[in-house]
Amino acid sequence: MSAKIRKIITIVEETHMEMGRAISPPTRRAAVVAVIENPFAGRYVEDLSELVAIGEELGGLLAQKAVDALGIEGPAAQSYGKAALVGENGELEHAAALLHPKMGTPVRKVLGKGAALIPSSKRRGGLGAELDIPLGHKDAAYVRSHFDGMQVSVPDAPRANEIVVAVAVTDSGRPLPRVGGLTTADIKGEDGLR
Question: What are the phi and psi torsion angles at 175 (to 5°)?
Fold first, then answer.
């Protein structure tokens, strides 16, 4: 792996109760976060292909760790998202290089599909800054029950010359969804929208 990884953190969240109502089975989501060295920190570089390659490597690694943390096979995942937090000596384009050109293909390979765009966010921040990972259904973007997000932070990251990169996966939608729209039973998954 070409990424210089300082640490990997796995977070699993299970919601068993919402508004006094039991959630059975509980909704579950996992985020796997890698803290990596930013090879371009502190300088402008025109060619960001090194970060594009790192994003491709991290996509498969983080997605696999996320489904493993949930104890499911990849195709059983229902929604996904990705995000990156750049330390102060980096730029937002460094996050974009990690997330957009090539990260999606290995994530989809782990999950067995993924017709919908992978929701993403990027920002700059310091130690312990919060990162919101947007979530959406992996095969049909219009499934409102899966419009969600997962917030993560790493107390000692990102350092000025680091990037925090995260992939989140769920085995369900939000607890108690009731705003209508396409249901998971109605998904065709052909165009990524419905």
Answer: -70, 140
Q: Per-residue pLDDT tens for 74-101?
A: 999 999 999 999 999 999 999 999 999 9
Query: Could you report how far apart the first and last alpha carbons of the chain are, in Å?
Result: 36
Give yes or no for a contact between 100 and 131, defined as CB atoms under 8 angstroms apart. Answer: no
Structural contact between residues 119 and 154, judged by C-beta atoms closer than 8 angstroms: no
Of 139-148, 160-169, 172-181, the range with the highest mean pLDDT is 160-169
Rg (CA), the chain: 17
Strand, helix or coil for residue 184: helix
- Identity of the residue numbered 103: M
Helix, strand, or coil (residue 141): coil
- Cα 44 to Cα 37, 39, 52, 94, 100: the distances in Å are 16, 11, 16, 10, 19
| Pairwise CA distance, residues 107 & 162, whole Å | 22
